[in-house]
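Could you help me review a protein record that somebody else here produced? This is what I was given.
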Amino acid sequence: MPLVIPVQPVIPWGVSLSLGHVIAFSSTVYRISYRYRIKRLWWDDYFATVAQLFALPYAMILWPRLKLNNSKRTQIMFYFMASVCYFSILWCARISMALSIARIFPPGEIRRYTIAMAIGFGTIGLGLVLQLSIVCGTDTSWHQTPGTHCHGTQWVSSFAGDMTGDLLLIFTPLVLVWRIRLAQNARRLILGIFGASVLTVIASVFLHVLILDPTRFGPGAGLLVYLLANVETCVCLFVCNLLVSASVLYRLIRRRKARTTEDHGNSSSRTADATTLTDVVDGTGNQRTETYALDLTDISDAMPSELYTSHHWDPEYTQRSKSQHHTDDNLTSTADSQPHSDEGSARNDEASGSQESSRT
């Protein structure tokens, strides 16, 4: 027996989604203002801004579209407007998240991969908008369907694209972040932030199940499709901005802990969250650890050109530095052993001289 969805209450849904749009908008405004204030705006921030610009008209038509007595012409106009904004919000936000990953890594293979992933997201988004325009623009039979929804092939493509994009955003950081030696709590926070894309996956699954066969689920399915689309866009925008917001909160918590530790006279924990980059053993056998204070806030806020001015992030440099340390140690040991050899030779000469004098 198929699940029958009743007609949805408009006011509770409208209030909840309006609050969700306000939260998403606030997170974007905070992100852009914070990055602008510290002069760290980059391409991931620009695409987050573009996503928010599409979210504004999407939120503005929420209440007018929830009116059940709109004319057919108005419903068709709202549908096209909402669909274009929906695809633009999702894929601009995903581009921003992909570029946020690219921001973590220096120029190289990993960064090229993440930038190519962002370009792929943009291509998918443009393709979906184009497919929507062609399919729903040429076939007008959907104008008479309940809820005025165009259930064309673009939604099959949309579901495939959503699953691909979100899974890439979940598993790519999981693989790549392990290449950076972060403190355990910072690593968990980064993975948790990108893992929040699971929420977008859940909303996308429910949305596309309903949208591909809305008549099967009763009279409330048509409106619920639009409501779930709003949920997905709000979640995606919030997750897109979560890295910046969480990193600032993380820094504030660290500062508070540092003050507390300093008050108790234990200043050694100030560098507990620093990133250890190279561990070198010197010639005396004592382990010497080189530490570079790169925390979560530095990663999320630094410009790529500034984050990697230090050669510590270059694996080849690290290998060369290790080889140089070993070379220096060998030279030091050789230099240290030379005086002992000279001293031994002098002692042998003195012993030979004494023997000759005694013989005489």
